[in-house]
Amino acid sequence: MPFTLSRRQSVAWLGAAPAILPALAHGQGILPDKPLRIVVGFAAGGGTDLMARLIAAQLQRRISQRIVVENKPGATGATAGEILKNGPSDGSLIALMPSTTLAARVVTPGFPFDPLIDITPITEVGTFQGAFAVSPTTPAQTVAEYIDWVKGDPQQRGKVGTTAADLTLDFYIRLFSREFGVKLTGVPFRGAGSLIHDMSEGLIPAGFAGVPSFLAAYRGKQIRILAISGHNRLAVAPNIPVVRDVGHPELEIVEWYGFFSAPMVPARVILEWNRVLVTTIQSSDVSEQLAQFGLEVQTSTPEETVALIATHLKRWHDLVTSLGGTPAN
């Protein structure tokens, strides 16, 4: 797939190409000489926010520029992409977004930005799994026991909390309902913190979120994770089974995080962001800490990230159709 930083950038890209190599060699004066901002479309304290702050702190130390993390929570985390769409073209603003936010365009009428046009990909950060968890007050110790328990009173026991009023998460709940053979109902919360609180207090019997949002609460015994959605178990939590282990390989889904910038940022600035971010993310001190969130570090070029977005949107289009839905975009 040819690299177009956005469909409106191809001319700028070609014009900038001769200057790229010497600029990267020196690595000075390419990023704007002002405080840099990382936008997160979720509340403070969740997995996305904590990873953004970890990366920002290490990056600030490496490039000797102030970096501020800003939380702009909203449904599906799309506020971050909308801010980029209308953001400055100097490259001073970037966002950390999960692929579920990008996929929300497939299922959300009037979604505020097009991932293939309105933002510029910088790099993938890593892949993560979803986690299906229950309250410690819920008697089920396994997925099979949970299914049997829900069947006793689907209306009350079938409530599953999600970390946002997010239609992509709603489709996950539909997928679980189909595979478990029980009626589950999604209950949106305003972020992972409030969901974990209510699960720990027994106010809602189950919840679904990305592993980065749930892993600390699992370690603290605030919740009990019954299964995660990847192919392999997590090295940092090897006792948690994957969906294949519990007899539901159809639920195997892996999502990812990426960094993005505004649509008209010059190509050489995007490449410098890619360079400094990849170097920071792949450093042992950062990658080891990201692994503790359940993130499998995996970086990419801007071109590779463009292709990753296109593939991801098609996969979600197919998933929505298979569940009887009609893609919104």
TrEMBL record:
Keyword flag Phosphoprotein: no
Record's keyword terms, sorted: Receptor
Pfam families noted in UniProt: TctC
Transmembrane segments: none
Family in the record: Belongs to the UPF0065 (bug) family.
UniProt protein name: Tripartite-type tricarboxylate transporter, receptor component TctC
